[in-house]
Design a protein that fits this description.
The complex is a heterodimer of chains A (256) and B (406). Chain A is an all-alpha fold and 256 residues long. Chain A has 12 helices and no strands. Chain A has one domain. In chain A, helix 2 packs across helix 6 and helix 3 packs across helix 10. The longest helix of chain A is centred in the middle third of the chain and has 28 residues. Chain B has 406 residues and is an alpha/beta fold. In chain B, strand 14 and strand 15 form a beta hairpin. At the A-B interface, helix 1, helix 5, helix 11 and helix 12 of A face helix 1 and helix 3 of B.
Chain lengths: 256, 406
């Protein structure tokens, strides 16, 4: 329970700290992915003339939005959590505390901020006439929680490894960029040549954009099998992440 | 007293840091740790430390810079993980490590108080209740709403100490807090710690101020190069430490072989304190000191001998020669003279001293030789300086058991 209180404290501090110095305050959380959406939407729709395959396919912008927001939440959570141990070295070196809390708070605050953003963009799309199934939104948020578990697992590994190997943080944006283009965010899985489609199942993130589109846009379908695999995968990644973090945790201060 | 519960205990506690020079070493260390193997190269900063602190005790940790005191404190608070041995702490610990522990420089004093309360495990309501008390104790005015990075080091300590004081921990662990604040705040802290100890609190204190250690602690532990050099009663441990410190800063004695090769007019054959050998003499405070020197005279002339006492760091305390007192040395055998002097009820205060003997020519002008013997005066005095001067308190009630020396 004290650890939970501590986590709440850090989450509050993190969210406040993020927008404290900026003019738009909390609005920035919404604006940033919106700009991304606008840029990508422009490039893909007007320059590349991208279209979602299928007869009753949704427009490209809603298609992109439902993939982009989960990715922004995921990648930002991992990026922020990677340096969180290093950034809090003064605290860690002086106060005994469960360090997992720091990672948890970094991931949780990203997901909170972008979870709100996700709801907002969904409602906004609906207001602009996109046929979004609002009843499925709570289920989609459940998917967000599952994605949170996956992100937490990846974040634990990254945060622990970063303490030892400082190259991770500068390399991470490139790795995440690769991961982003290897995920069905800008394109549907069906647009790929058939022999590459199976490889997608190895990407633990690939499930989420597809699931959100299936739920909210009824574009594509999701199977119970895929849902079960994704859930197990998220839990497995989290368990591995925690195990790695626990093992390295006692040695952090030697390398900070 | 010995039945009181143990609040903190270490068993064969050791800590070593890995030797990491290049980033490749870090990668290798990561690999070793993930594979569950031990680390290959490391430097030990603490070895086999056994300490035990019971409820109501107060332990002072003393030692030179880099001896491992702060590492030991960090191990006790759980910030560091032991490399070997174990640490057991059964108490709510309030720690103040390296001043203003864990403050975030970007946040205001108020926010940092909230964080400290959360770290200590208080909920929001409890933290709010403590807030006025903390702000009042810290007494830093409007700075409480400024970011901590704008604080002076004294203000950081004030705030840190105020937080710890408000949390009222079972075990207070602090590191040199008293060294930074101003006089008034130091007094406030010392008074608070005294009240805290009186109310049954337990203290582990690191300090370079022997005065504070002796004032606040009943036990002391001297950490030297990562090992416990001495532990036990605060007076004996601090005196042993001070003696070591002083002897370290004293200059080395001149080489005698060189001197004897020159065949000087006078040289010392031997020099002893209370018939002891070369080893330093340990004497209880107020005991009798007897110094004896034998001088070889080349030409058979009668030498003058000076006996001097200096503190171990070289500060002169007292010196006297046979010529000053009009004494003629006793002839022992051909060209050998003996000088012997007694200091009854030696007035030296506890500490480390050096007694010196020098032969001079009969005119008491030229000095030919020097021999030194170490002298440690033991005792439990908290008086200042080097000697106890005769004194008497006037118009005051005398304590029943201890009347001032008259």
């Amino acid at each position: 329970m004290p650890a939970f209180r501590l986590a709440l404290h850090f989450i509050r501090r993190d969210i406040r700290n993020r927008y404290l110095g900026s003019f738009s305050g909390g609005l920035w959380a919404l604006v940033q992915p919106l700009i991304q959406l606008a840029v990508y939407g422009f490039v893909f729709v007007y320059v590349f003339h991208a279209k979602v395959p299928g007869a009753d396919a949704p427009g490209y912008v809603p298609f992109l939005a439902l993939g982009l927001w989960p990715w922004v939440a995921f990648s930002e959570a991992v990026t922020r959590a990677t340096t969180v141990i290093q950034d809090n070295a003064p605290l860690i070196n002086k106060v005994a505390m469960p360090r997992q809390v720091l990672v948890f708070a970094a991931v949780a605050s990203s997901f909170l901020v972008h979870g709100v953003g996700f709801c907002a963009i969904t409602l906004a799309l609906r207001a602009f006439g996109v046929p979004i199934d609002l009843l499925a939104l709570p289920i989609a948020l459940g998917g967000f929680v599952q994605l949170f578990l996956l992100a937490l697992g990846v974040a634990f590994v990254c945060a622990a490894v970063q303490v030892f190997v400082r190259d991770l943080a500068p390399a991470l944006p490139q790795l995440l960029m690769l991961w982003m283009f290897a995920s069905p965010i800008f394109y549907a899985r069906d647009s790929l040549p058939a022999r590459y489609q199976d490889w997608f199942s190895l990407n633990p993130f690939a499930y989420y954009p597809e699931q959100f589109r299936a739920l909210l846009l009824h574009s594509g379908s999701s199977s119970v099998r895929a849902e079960a695999i994704a859930l197990l995968l998220a839990i497995a990644v989290l368990a591995c992440g925690l195990a790695v973090f626990r093992r390295l945790n006692p040695h952090f201060e030697d390398f900070l | 007293m010995s039945a009181a519960p143990v609040l903190a205990e270490t068993r064969d506690l050791g800590k070593s840091y890995p030797l990491v020079f290049r980033s490749r070493d870090r990668l290798r260390a990561l690999w070793h740790l993930l594979a569950g193997r031990g680390r290959a190269e490391s430097v030990a900063v603490l070895k086999d430390v056994n300490i035990c602190v019971r409820r109501g005790e107060s332990l002072g940790l003393i030692g030179e810079n880099g001896a491992g005191k702060s590492t030991l404190l960090k191990l006790l608070t759980g910030v560091l993980t032991p490399s070997s041995g174990s640490v057991t702490v059964n108490a709510r610990v309030g720690a103040l490590l390296e001043l203003g522990a864990g403050f975030h420089p970007e946040y205001s004093g108020r926010d940092n108080i909230a964080l400290a309360a959360a770290l200590y495990g208080l909920d929001a309501t409890e933290a709010r209740e403590k807030l006025p008390e903390i702000i009042e104790f810290a007494d830093i005015g409007r700075y409480i709403d400024e970011p901590v990075k704008h604080y002076s080091s004294g203000m950081v300590v004030r705030l840190g100490f105020a937080i710890v004081a408000a949390l009222k921990p079972d075990l207070l662990i602090t590191d040199e807090v008293l060294a930074v604040g101003d006089e008034a705040f130091q007094k406030k802290c010392v008074r608070w710690i005294e009240d805290y100890l009186e109310a049954g609190g337990t203290l582990i204190l690191v300090s370079h101020s022997m005065y504070h250690v002796q004032k606040l602690c009943r036990q002391a532990c001297w950490i030297k190069h990562g090992e416990v050099a001495a532990s036990g009663d605060v007076y004996s441990v601090t005196q042993a430490y001070l003696a070591y410190q002083e002897s370290k800063s004293a200059t080395a004695a001149p080489d005698r072989h060189e001197l004897l090769a020159q065949n000087p007019e006078f040289h010392l054959l031997d020099f002893s304190l209370n018939d002891g050998g070369v080893a330093p003499l340990v004497l209880a405070q107020g005991a009798t000191l007897r110094a004896r020197a034998r001088v070889q005279s080349r030409d058979g002339r009668v030498p003058v001998v000076v006996f001097g006492i200096v503190r171990a760091d070289g500060t002169p305390v007292y010196g006297v020669s046979s010529e000053m007192d009009g004494v003629r040395l006793q002839h022992e055998s051909s060209n050998v003279y003996v000088a012997e002097i007694v200091f009854p009820e030696l007035a030296l205060l506890p500490g480390a001293y050096v007694v010196k003997a020098h032969p001079l020519d009969p005119e008491a002008i030229r000095l030919f030789d020097t021999l030194e013997r170490g002298l440690t005066v033991s005792g439990q005095s908290r008086e200042f300086g080097m000697v106890r001067l005769r004194h008497q308190w006037l118009n005051a009630e005398q304590p029943a058991q201890k009347v001032a020396v008259s």
